[in-house]
Amino acid sequence: MKVLAAMSGGVDSAVAAARAAEAGHDVTGIHLALSRNPQSYRSGARGCCTIEDSNDARRAADVIGIPFYVWDLSERFHEDVVEDFMDEYAAGRTPNPCLRCNEKIKFAAVLDRALGLGFDAVATGHYAQLRTCADGLIEMHRAVDHGKDQSYVLGVLDQGQLAHSYFPLGDSTKTAVRAEAAERGLLVADKPDSHDICFVADGDNAGWLKEKLGDRAPNHGGPIVDDSSGEELGRHEGTVGFTIGQRKGLRIGTPAPDGKPRFVLDIEPVSGTVTVGPRERLAVDGLTGIRPRWCGTVPDRLAGPGVTVQLRAHGDEHRAVVERRGDEVTVHLLDPAYGIAPGQAAVIYDGTRVVGSATISATVRAAVGATA
Question: pLDDT tens-digit profile of 183-202?
Fold first, then answer.
């Protein structure tokens, strides 16, 4: 099989490329140049998007003994991921740029180009497993290492994309992958994982958004109000500095009557109003999802002990009943979830199998007093 290995410069993608080559595939390594100005992206050994990451990927390809190229997808990345990130926050939603990057860049732009060049599959260092059923349907399942499982951010892939995807690390633990990298002589064996958003250099999402949005920001300040009384508790400089469920950085001088911390419950970008209240008011037991993407057969209804929904990367699984209504998905959570915001992805599972995903457009608050 002719395989294009996407190499970020981190340990996972390096070992994935090495395993693909060792399995006898004809492997070519590529590094994606995603920044218009690489110096403005995060620096340090973090495994994504910097010049040093490109150099690390090239050195790994040399050790493995495969050809290596750099593909410039900076314009596509800016349009489909960075602009989407800004637009979503400006509208008061909380997006996941890594999920969008997988959907629009790694398994769309890269895969399309790879197929056009005669490659059979794109290999990445994601922790997920693919299984081919007797009828030819390809299922995606959680990785063996549940602590590193990345099926959540791959829940946007459809059957056509899965048919040309290759995840060599799905049956391994991260500890084993690092040990294997060291044995193979890959210098990235001990390189730290990347956790922050790659295009936010200092990790300050709110500060970056305020600077980049400028006049596009929906407001330049507004009130912070109490959910129960409607009392104005303070002022803020822009709603892009807040997310649903946020506790820190509210700068509210007046303590709550019960002395407990307050959390962001709602963000209204047009009026600039940020509503805060107690943690129990964050509980939701229902949500609506739009723009669904299905990994295989499109279901009408899913229910049963194995049906769960994951609402954030590495978040908990919530037992659920899922129904498809045209281009929308409704989810009833059997166990309330906390701090769920429009814009996040709801990824649907049946056991370990990924069924599909949808973008949360609205949530339904659980009755006060409900427990998780």
Answer: 999 999 999 887 667 777 66
d(CA 46, CA 116): 31
Q: Kindly report the CATH number that applies to the domain delimited by 218-277.
A: 2.30.30.280
Binding-site residue positions for ATP: 6-13, 32, 125
Whether pLDDT at 236 is above 50: yes
* Rounded-to-integer distance, Cα 333 and Cα 288, Å: 11
Task: Determine the pLDDT at residue 371.
Answer: 47
Q: Where in the chain is the domain with CATH 3.40.50.620?
A: 2-190
Which CATH code fits 281-365? Answer: 2.40.30.10
The half-sphere exposure of 298 on its side-chain side, counting CA atoms within 13 A, is: 10
Phi-psi region of 253 (alpha: psi -120 to 50; beta: other; left: phi over 0): alpha
Return residue ranges of the chain for CATH 2.40.30.10: 281-365
Binding residues: 6-13, 32, 125
Element (H, E) at 205: helix 205-213
DSSP conformational letter for 93: -
Catalytic residue among 48, 98, 101, 295: 101
Structure-block tokens of residue 363: 């949530």
48 noted as active-site residue: no
Instruction: Tell which residue, 49, 32, 211, 204, has the closest CA to residue 111.
Output: 32
Look up the pTM and report it: 0.89
Angle between helices 11-22 and 174-183 (to 10 degrees): 70
Q: Is residue 241 over pLDDT 60?
A: yes
The question of whether 101 is a catalytic residue gets the answer yes
Domain 2-190: state its class: alpha beta
Q: Where in the chain is the domain with CATH 2.30.30.280?
A: 218-277
